[in-house]
Amino acid sequence: MKILNHALRVLSVLLLGLALASCSDTDGPPEDIIGVAAAGAATQGTVFVVDSSGVEISKTINSDGSYKFDVRDMNAPFMLKTVASNGIDADLFSYAEEANVTVNITPLTNLAMFIAYSNADLSILYDSWVSAFGNIDPLVLKDAQATVNANLSTQYTAFSLDPFTYDFVATRFLTNGTSFDALLDAMTVDLSAGISISIAGIANVLTFDSDIDITDFDIGGDSVATTGAYTVSVVVTVDAASSGSLLLSINFPASSVPTDIDTQIIEDTFSTFYGSVGTIVITSVTVTPDVDTPTTIVAVVDATITPDLGDPINYSAAYTYTQN
Question: Where do the domains of the chain lie?
Answer without folding.
Answer: 32-199, 229-323
